[in-house]
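Justification of computing resources. Each target in the renewal requires a structure prediction run like the one illustrated here; the chain below, 447 residues long, is used simply to show the kind of job we budget for.
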Amino acid sequence: MRNTLLITLIFLSSIAIRAQENPQGRTFNFNLQECLQYAYENQDSIKNAKLDIESAKYKVKETFGIGLPQVSGSAQFQDYLKIPTTLIPAEFFGGDPGTFAPVQFGVKYQSNAGLSATQLLFNGSYLVGLKASKTYKELSERNLTRTKIATTVAVTKAYYQVLVSGEQIRLLDANLAQLGQQLKETTELNKQGFVERIDLDRLTVNYNNLQTRRENTVRLVELSTQLLKFQIGMPITDKLEVKDKINNISLNLDESQAVDTAAYRNRIEFNLLQTQRKLNELNVERLKSEYLPSLAAFGTTSYSFQSDKFRDLYDRKFPTTFVGLQLNVPVFAGFQRKYQIKQAQIEVKKSENVLNLVKNGFLLQQESSLITFRNSIKSLNNQKANMDLAREVLRVSKIKYQEGVGSSIEVTQAQTELETAENNYIQSLFDALVSKVDLDNAYGRIQ
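Resulting structure tokens:
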């Protein structure tokens, strides 16, 4: 019984420890910067980009290792079940001229062991390869930057979607509060006979529809939050709450930055293409370096063992040691290398053309995103003014209705117009936030 209890306690303790190591249902309360920081540490695409950098570092070391001494060892054992036979002229042994006598040279058992080493002294392709490996590492680092920028854009837009949906719920709550109060007052007036039943029914329908819209928006906020968690690499089982308020987001535009025609140089995509062009230029250098001779030093030391008896095989050893230099001079290769260089030079020119094309494309994107942002701000201001005006129209319509100089239809129409104006405002608000992110990305201000 005591053993059973002990085993049960150990089992429960192990479960508790695993639960602590892998907590489920954690709650996080993040602002935008904290969401981005979490994404930089947990987003799988960023993790892979970091692994690419680590792999590139090993690639540089691998290339560097080509220039280090290359040492190899070897060992061999042979048992001649039948010793090879050689025919030699029989007259060497007093035989008839023109005839051959079979002779066996060697012993039954042979063995050898040795070490060989080579050292590269000069090779043009190796020197260029060192440069290229470092540039390859630079390329992987810039790929990480590009991945982080793409993550920043996606996370920021998802974060703004949560904020905008929260603002929509705030507006709906305000509408529900004032409409609920109006419904309560109208119900009392209907009981007293001052208001027709149809007016009460209209208000009830509006209230029910508004309540349904709020429930749908709450589910939309939940979905937007799940998307945000996905973008930052957070487990779906965890809970995420946002700190920021929509009023804290700045939509101001620095006009001095809007005229920066050299901003395309800040774009990571442009820098990646520059790195690719550099790799193409290094490829031309590598091919040209193959016209140069290469020089390497080598050396070998070994021991040979021979005997007719296996037990005596390693009693005597016969050493062999030599060193030398090997020079390879390319003389003629059928003009292949010449035309390979021509092809590589064409690739360099193509990369320059791509850079020029991308530069013009980025300038166009900057202009387009700037116009889109200005239009979205203009639309946002108009929709906000319309929303305020619709709210005032509803207020006046309610007063007129209460004083008996207006109709319930006017109140219902004013309520509908306010809801429409609020929907347009919410959409314009999200469009403005997204266009601001696109504008910052187009000018290379997201790093």
